[in-house]
Each structure stands twice: as structure tokens, then as C-alpha cells.
UniProtKB/TrEMBL annotation:
<feature type="domain" description="6-phosphogluconate dehydrogenase C-terminal">
    <location>
        <begin position="178"/>
        <end position="468"/>
    </location>
</feature>
<dbReference type="GO" id="GO:0050661">
    <property type="term" value="F:NADP binding"/>
</dbReference>
<dbReference type="InterPro" id="IPR013328">
    <property type="entry name" value="6PGD_dom2"/>
</dbReference>
<dbReference type="GO" id="GO:0019521">
    <property type="term" value="P:D-gluconate metabolic process"/>
</dbReference>
<comment type="subunit">
    <text>Homodimer.</text>
</comment>
<comment type="pathway">
    <text>Carbohydrate degradation; pentose phosphate pathway; D-ribulose 5-phosphate from D-glucose 6-phosphate (oxidative stage): step 3/3.</text>
</comment>
<dbReference type="Pfam" id="PF00393">
    <property type="entry name" value="6PGD"/>
</dbReference>
<feature type="active site" description="Proton acceptor">
    <location>
        <position position="182"/>
    </location>
</feature>
<feature type="binding site">
    <location>
        <begin position="32"/>
        <end position="34"/>
    </location>
    <ligand>
        <name>NADP(+)</name>
    </ligand>
</feature>
<feature type="binding site" description="in other chain">
    <location>
        <begin position="185"/>
        <end position="186"/>
    </location>
    <ligand>
        <name>substrate</name>
    </ligand>
</feature>
<feature type="binding site">
    <location>
        <position position="102"/>
    </location>
    <ligand>
        <name>NADP(+)</name>
    </ligand>
</feature>
<keyword id="KW-0560">Oxidoreductase</keyword>
<comment type="function">
    <text>Catalyzes the oxidative decarboxylation of 6-phosphogluconate to ribulose 5-phosphate and CO(2), with concomitant reduction of NADP to NADPH.</text>
</comment>
<feature type="binding site" description="in other chain">
    <location>
        <position position="102"/>
    </location>
    <ligand>
        <name>substrate</name>
    </ligand>
</feature>
<dbReference type="InterPro" id="IPR006113">
    <property type="entry name" value="6PGDH_Gnd/GntZ"/>
</dbReference>
<feature type="binding site">
    <location>
        <begin position="74"/>
        <end position="76"/>
    </location>
    <ligand>
        <name>NADP(+)</name>
    </ligand>
</feature>
<dbReference type="InterPro" id="IPR008927">
    <property type="entry name" value="6-PGluconate_DH-like_C_sf"/>
</dbReference>
């Protein structure tokens, strides 16, 4: 056996990961259920490095140095369990199975426990960066045992994206921690994309500008604080003319956003943990809403004139308002995402380092952005930061942005342009900083109809008012 690491599942992501490994000098065992893919990989890219192809899983396993390290890159869900079912009987204690698919972290926890009983390490690993990232350097988020990382770390850190000489890969924590962090990454990706889309829509409505003109605005933003992969490709997509019609590409694409489900998982888990990730939730629901074509058509007919005309007096001021509102809303989305990671880490006892997580998102992944460096600094300086909004750099941006944020959300509301993520981020900010919340009334109502009790501001204890009786208060 000569191969240092193996990859089974050679669709585009697996294929590119295998090539990345080989290009970095590792000897890579490769296998795919249908052998054509294995053959074409070796035929087309065999000169990039050392591949050891196998047509059977048994030969593949036998071609690997021990302890074996095997990357499984198949569709998340049942296909993963099917591969594990075949693979596990061929392995020996100490071997490492790495699942690089977008698995749900709860599945990863279950699989980790099952493989541990066979003496195997199961390492659920988040990989972000799409096809290009897999080939040229993704962001890699491995969970699993610390022991497995001693073998995997040097390999993954080598093939990951590098920022300032630091690899975008680190051990996140035990069992499902890596897939959990990847899940929240995707949730933030949803929020970020929704905010960008709303900013585009507002610019389009407020300026009566076309996509090509708005592309230039995004291009400008990408040279400042907002610099990020998503802003960069937004400019690219907006400037793109449709090949068939010559019209702006965004105008020929159906406005129904799809999803594979990782954003939904993020929201579902946040509900369980009680973490208000309102930006991610709005973004996820905005995608669902966009897909309800029949309802939308009916409502469009019924309420055609419900908005008010909108014209912007000063173009530059408005563009700057939208930029500041976008930045502030984006800070809220990231603050919420990091709150979610902290809560998950506590709930599942993972010990996740928030600054470290920001560090490995600086490059390779879809949400890579200049300001992740600021997030890293914020959590490195103060790991117990109550919310990212309080870190000086972010607090300044949010405070400076508040007037713009309010103008943009108010203008959008008046004009009838939906900006759910902008509006909900602002509401989150205002709720967090509110002196008193109407939650007190909610408590009163709960006590009134269901004797659910409440706490007082002036005394310790739990109380109930005898609403149907003499309205005196009793200790509950
Ligand atoms: C990444 C992405 C990727 C995700 C796609 C599509 O980090 O490379 O998050 O993992 O699968 O972005 O996601 P949706 O289909 O849910 O939009």
C-alpha cells in the first residue's frame, strides 16, 4: 500500500479534492462506484500527481497506508450511510473516515458514535468553496477526534486556502462540530446573499438603474469594507448579458430562489437552541416566499398599487445609505451566526474557538470577506464577547450606519419594496438596545389566560395574579 489518503466518490467535488491532494504531492487512492469516473480522472489529470486508481472498494482500501485516511465525497443523506455500510467492514481500528459532504451535524454525531464502536474515527468535515475551492484551496472545517486531526491536519492544512500564510483549516471540535460550523456558514451565506439581493433591488428601484449600472456600484463597494467574494461575483452576475436575448441575465432568470436545505437546518437548530438568527431566518423564508409563484401572481393582481412612488433626490447619498445599511445588516447576520455557533458549542460540548472559526473563513469559502479578519480580532481579543455588535470596529460601523439604515428601511417600506432582511436586522438591533421590551406584556397575557406566571422587576420570586378573582397577586 502506497497511498497516503483516499477519495471515494468522484463527482466534481470529490474529483477536484483528489486533484488538489495530488497536486500538493500526496499519493491519492481514488475510487468511484462506477469506474468510468475513476478512469476519466486518471486519463485527464493523471499527470498532475500520484493517483492510485481502484475499481473495487476492497482494492481501494488495500491501496492505502495504515492508519488509513479515506475521504467520502458522496451526496449527503442515505448515500453516505450506504458507502459507510460497505466501507466499514473493510477497515481496521485506527482508520479514519472523513465525510466531506454537506451532512446534517446530527447525522454526523450518529455516524461518529457508530464508527467509534468499531474503533474507527469518523470525521464530519465541512468543505466550502464550491468546485473551484475544492481544486484550488477550500476552507476546511473538520470535526471528529483530536487524534484523527494529527493525521489529517497536515494534509488538509496543505490543500486548504491560505491567507497571510495561515491555512483556512483547523480542528473545529469533536464529532459533529465541523458539520455544525459548516451549516452555520451556509446560514450566513443565505443571509449575506439575501442582503446583497435586497441592496440590488433597492438600488434598482430607488435609482431606476439597470443591472449593469448597479454592477459598477458593487464593483466600487468591493474595494472597501464590504470587500468579499459574494460582492465580487454580484458585480459579475449583474454585468452579464444573456447570450440568447442580449437582455441583462438577471432579468431572464426566474425569480424563484432554490435551496438544498442547509439554511433551513440552521434555522431549525437555532429555534431548538433559542438563538435569534433573524437575518438567516428571513433569508431562508425569503427564498421560500419567492417560490410561491401562484400566491405571488394573485397578490400582484390584487395589490398592484399598494406602494408609493419613489424617487431619490441625491444619487450618491442614497448609494452610500444603502452601502451603510448593507454593512450594518451584514454585521447583524454575522453576529447572530457566531452567537449560534457559541450556543451549539455549549449545548454539544464542543469547545469551538470563535476567533479560530473566523480565521478559517477568511479564504476559500463562499462567505470569505475582508471583515472576517475583524471578527477574528474581536473574538481573539475577547472570547466572551456578549455580541459581535459590541466589538469596537463593529460598534463603530453600526453606530455610524444607523441613520442610513433607518432611511433605507423607511424608504423601502413607503415605496413597497420588500427588504425583509434589512428591516429585520434593524429591528433586531433596536430590540437588543431597547430599555424595555413589550415582552412584559406577553408575560402578562400568558399569566392572564393560562396562569403561566411572571417575574417582577422589583422583587425576586415567581408570581401570578388572580385575574378571574380579586386580582391580588400570589407567589407561585
Ligand atoms: C459552499 C456552499 C455549498 C452549498 C451551495 C448551495 O460553502 O461551498 O455553501 O456548500 O451547497 O452554496 O446551497 P443551496 O443550494 O442551499 O443554496
Amino acid at each position: 500500500p502506497t497511498a497516503q489518503i483516499g477519495v471515494t466518490g468522484l463527482a466534481v467535488m470529490g474529483r477536484n479534492l483528489a486533484r488538489n491532494l495530488a497536486r500538493n504531492g500526496f499519493t491519492v487512492a481514488v475510487h468511484n462506484r462506477s469506474p468510468e469516473r475513476t478512469r476519466s480522472l486518471v486519463a485527464e489529470h493523471g499527470d498532475e500527481g500520484a493517483f492510485v486508481p481502484s475499481e473495487s472498494l476492497a482494492d481501494f482500501v488495500a491501496s492505502l497506508e495504515r492508519p488509513r485516511a479515506i475521504v467520502v465525497m458522496v451526496k449527503a443523506g442515505d448515500p453516505t450511510d450506504a458507502v459507510l455500510g460497505e466501507l466499514v467492514p473493510l477497515l481496521e481500528p485506527g482508520d479514519i473516515v472523513v465525510d466531506c459532504g454537506n451532512a446534517h451535524f446530527a447525522d454526523t454525531r450518529r455516524r461518529e458514535e457508530a464508527l467509534r464502536e468499531h474503533g474507527l474515527h469518523f470525521v464530519g468535515t465541512g468543505v466550502s468553496g464550491g468546485e473551484e475551492g475544492a481544486l484550488h484551496g477550500p476552507s476546511i472545517m473538520p470535526g471528529g477526534s483530536a487524534e484523527s486531526y494529527r493525521k489529517l491536519g497536515p494534509i488538509f492544512e496543505r490543500i486548504a486556502a491560505q491567507v497571510d500564510g495561515v491555512p483556512c483549516c483547523r480542528h473545529i471540535g469533536p464529532d459533529g462540530a465541523g458539520h455544525f460550523v459548516k451549516m452555520v456558514h451556509n446560514g450566513i451565506e443565505y443571509a449575506d446573499m439575501q442582503l446583497i439581493a435586497e441592496a440590488y433591488d433597492l438600488l434598482r428601484a430607488g435609482l431606476s438603474a439597470g443591472p449593469a449600472e448597479i454592477a459598477e456600484i458593487f464593483r466600487g463597494w468591493n474595494t472597501g469594507e464590504l470587500e468579499s467574494f459574494l460582492i465580487e461575483i454580484t458585480a459579475d452576475v449583474l454585468a452579464h448579458p444573456d447570450a440568447a436575448t442580449g437582455r441583462p441575465f438577471v432579468d431572464v432568470v426566474r425569480d424563484e430562489a432554490e435551496q438544498k436545505g442547509t439554511g433551513r437546518w440552521t434555522v431549525q437548530n437555532a429555534l431548538d437552541l433559542g438563538i435569534p438568527i433573524t437575518g438567516i431566518a428571513e433569508a431562508t423564508f425569503a427564498r421560500s416566499l419567492s417560490g410561491h409563484a401562484e400566491q405571488r401572481a394573485a397578490a400582484r393582481r390584487a395589490f398592484a398599487d399598494a406602494g408609493q412612488p419613489w424617487w431619490v433626490e441625491n444619487r450618491d447619498t442614497f448609494v452610500e445609505d444603502v452601502r451603510r445599511a448593507l454593512l450594518a445588516s451584514k454585521i447583524v447576520a454575522y453576529a447572530q451566526g457566531f452567537d449560534h455557533i457559541r450556543a451549539g458549542s455549549r449545548e454539544y460540548d464542543w469547545g469551538i474557538d470563535l476567533g479560530g472559526t473566523a480565521t478559517i473563513w477568511r479564504g476559500g469559502c463562499i462567505i470569505r470577506a475582508r471583515f472576517l479578519d475583524r471578527i477574528r480580532e474581536a473574538y481573539d481579543a475577547r472570547p466572551d464577547l456578549p455580541t459581535l455588535l459590541l466589538a469596537p470596529w463593529f460598534a463603530d460601523r453600526v453606530s455610524d450606519g444607523v441613520p442610513s439604515w433607518r432611511r433605507v428601511v423607511a424608504d423601502a417600506a413607503r415605496a413597497g419594496v420588500p427588504a425583509p432582511a434589512f428591516a429585520s436586522s434593524l429591528a433586531y438591533f433596536d430590540a437588543l438596545r431597547a430599555e424595555r421590551l413589550p415582552a412584559a406584556l406577553i408575560q402578562g397575557l400568558r399569566d392572564n389566560f393560562g396562569a403561566h406566571t411572571y417575574h417582577r422587576v422589583d422583587r425576586e420570586g415567581t408570581f401570578h395574579t388572580l385575574w378571574a378573582g380579586d386580582r391580588s397577586e400570589v407567589s407561585a
